[in-house]
Amino acid sequence: MRDNAPANDSSHEGRCALGRCPRCGATVIETTERYACEKSLAEIGPCPFRLGKIVLAQPLDHRQVHLLLTTGRTELLHQFVSKSGRTFSAYLTIDDTAKVVFDFPPSPAEIASVPARQAPPEEPPPDKSCTVLLEAATQDLFRQNAFRITGLPVDASPREIAKHADRLKIMEELGQGASAHTGAFALSPPPTVDQIRDAIRKLKDPELRIIEIGRASCRERV
């Protein structure tokens, strides 16, 4: 993109260096009428690179020219006016032949025609159905059995478990919580009050109770 003014403009405005000429690598400066390669004024073999300060009614300031020369592209500019009087937006870029050309942003219709990126499918949540069983499968499978800790039989009813829990509370108030542990396979040393309380909690939970019944059927391994 070149302006049609003569190239022999010898008036420089402070010789502000705006960047390197894309044609010859010399410095691009500002003159009275345009931005031009400093070699454009040479008498022998002048560089033809020059750019008007106004392109199709769009003013070009130092910032945009500097961006163009250093990055190869201006910001999106919105005040270009075509020959038919239509205002349009575009970038100015430098092509492979060192010419300044328009680069038009995609239209709304083009953007709408691009298929939306589908989000990757979410991974299914980890299967936690066996978590309780895995947590119960320890080396102390039998020793930590809730029925053995509480001294309750495996066929104890929910009512019997509740009564045992009430008995434990009373004995705790009397300072005899550890004495709540009774049964044919008493532990030595006896379980703590917290262990008995946790065992009763497990027996009140239907899912955990089934696991404790299975534990009670196992033989303790030394």
Q: Could you describe the 3D structure shown?
A:
It contains 7 helices and 9 strands; from the N terminus they run ββββββαβββαααααα. The model has no long low-confidence stretch (mean pLDDT 75). The chain is α+β, with helices and mostly antiparallel strands and 222 residues long. The chain is rod-shaped, with a radius of gyration of 44 Å. The strands form 3 sheets. The chain has a 4-stranded antiparallel sheet with strand order 1-2-3-4. Strands 7-8-9 form a 3-stranded antiparallel sheet, with no helix packed on it.
List the helices and strands and how they pair.
Layout: E1 19-20, E2 27-30, E3 34-37, E4 50-52, E5 54-55, E6 58-59, H1 62-71, E7 77-81, E8 87-94, E9 100-103, H2 108-113, H3 131-136, H4 146-150, H5 158-173, H6 193-204, H7 206-216
Helix pairs in contact: 5-6
Indicate the overall shape: rod-shaped
SS field, number of helical segments: 7
Mean pLDDT: 75
Please compute the radius of gyration using only Cα atoms: 44 Å
User: Share of helix among residues?
Assistant: 25-40%
| Quaternary assembly | single chain
Strand content: 15-25%
**Whole-number count of domains:** 2
Terminal Cα span: 92 Å
Category from helices, strands and their pairing:
alpha+beta
Described by strand count, sense and barrel closure, the largest sheet is: 4 strands, antiparallel
Strands in their spatial order, largest beta sheet: 1-2-3-4
SSE string, helix = H, strand = E? EEEEEEHEEEHHHHHH
